[in-house]
Amino acid sequence: MSKTLSSEINQEVEKRRTFAIISHPDAGKTTLTEKLLLFGGAIRLAGSVKARKASRHATSDWMEIEKQRGISVTSSVMQFDYNGHRVNILDTPGHQDFSEDTYRTLTAADSAVMLIDVAKGVEAQTIKLFQVCRKRGIPIFTFINKLDREGQSPFDLMEELERVLGIRSVPMNWPIGMGRELCGVYDRMKDQVELFQGDDHETISVRKVADYHDPVIREMAGDYLADQLEQELELLDVAGDPFDFEKVRAGELTPVFFGSAVNNFGVQTFLENFLQLAPKPASRMSTSGPVEPTDEKFSGYIFKIQANMNPAHRDRIAFLRICSGRFERGMSVKHVRAGKDIKLSQPQQFLAQDRDIVETAYPGDIIGLFDPGIFRIGDSLSQGASVEFDELPTFSPEIFAKVTVKNALKHKQYQKGIDQLTEEGTIQVFQTTGSFDETILGVVGQLQFEVFEYRMRAEYGVEIQLHRMSFQFARWIVDDKIDPSKFRINSTLVKDKKGNYVALFENEYAMRTAMDKNPTSKFLEMAP
Ligand code: GDP
């Protein structure tokens, strides 16, 4: 019995690829996601993901704030099968709904796809998300999108990846022309040419060639583009990094693919290469050492809590990443922090808008658990012995506001609301260290404030007022002898809820000055 269970888990782990797409708004994430889902047959109609993005209120159970703004507070999970793989895409919200959840979601991914607009290159939100992936050391695959438009030269983009992100790159394919002249890509690994055909650039034909000097390319692309391709690939062969699987796996080298998501060009070859190169679920660190995904005992941790997906029931969904073993609906597991056994009876899996009930799931999968208010971000659940996964990082907020209660009599509810919403990770809370005891809230994205205000009113009956502050950076300060007087110019010193000192700065200059004045202090971007 035990032997079959372990080989079953092993087989399921081998199949799984769990990743997130990181990009700046408008780079084409929705379009690419949709094409990937189409290949996997997970959705029947092109446009479904886009339709979801455009008119979220199609389903009645999104929270009101989502309806009002027509955007999603949720980062959901999409699952499909392709070529024997079980693929989980973690959606990372962009636009105004960018929040700390976006970062936390990345902790549940085993690899990332970095999507870049060929004309715009590396943009602000991409940099932030990249840095989180980098810290975790997960492999990062790059898809350079919108090749059907004029953009930067591929060499300039590679140089930009190195200069801005500090990562070396290895092009897996190379464009033959660009924009209106684009006629295809040369696959450097397989020595084949993928061609666009027709004005709509839709049909793709694949031709095997001897190498990039093959006269067939000249016939297909013309002398000018064939010469250019030869020169560029010769240069790349001599001066570029060779493909190195170990470096890719360690997140030190990013394989680069060129394509056009909207034209479905290069997407399928990208998906196939990606699934081959991307890692299966790996072991995860816990307080008692690494936990192997193939361990027979189920374990997982909660990386996100979504409130009010159904306002009628006011339920909350806790998103759990499975780390080991087999999940079965109705199973009893230990809620490690609470020291209690709980039954997982209403698990849900997410595919676009539908919420399906899951019967079984394996490491790498994400399930949504009905949460009657018992879970916190970072909680571990395990079968048998208690397994406690390492705490999730607290990310540096960038927007700050002072909070006051309109009705002083509601102070008790206010405190309850603050405590609960901080635990859920909706906001971060800081206390001032001066003579007045004031509460400052910190968030990564503006929407977190709106969600906070809405929930304080709807769930705790408290009207609050937020007063935006001009701070833009937060750094946790580690020092035995901290001197608050050195954090006064365009900055202030506060404490987080664990009592750690955090300095808030209005600008980078103020932060650098404080670093110079406090050479013995450590300035950390994440909570220690
Ligand atoms: P997201 O904000 O990253 O999810 O971006 P979307 O997928 O919504 O795409 C933003 C815009 O870029 C839309 O108008 C898309 O149609 C367009 N787009 C996406 N991929 C391509 C592409 O390969 N070529 C061109 N020309 N436009 C694209």
TrEMBL record:
GO terms for cellular component: cytosol. CDD domains: RF3, RF3_II. It comes from the Bacteria. The keyword GTP-binding applies. Residues 14-282 form the Tr-type G domain. Belongs to the TRAFAC class translation factor GTPase superfamily. Classic translation factor GTPase family. PrfC subfamily. HAMAP family: Rel_fac_3 (MF_00072). This is Peptide chain release factor 3. It comes from Paenibacillus beijingensis. The gene is prfC.
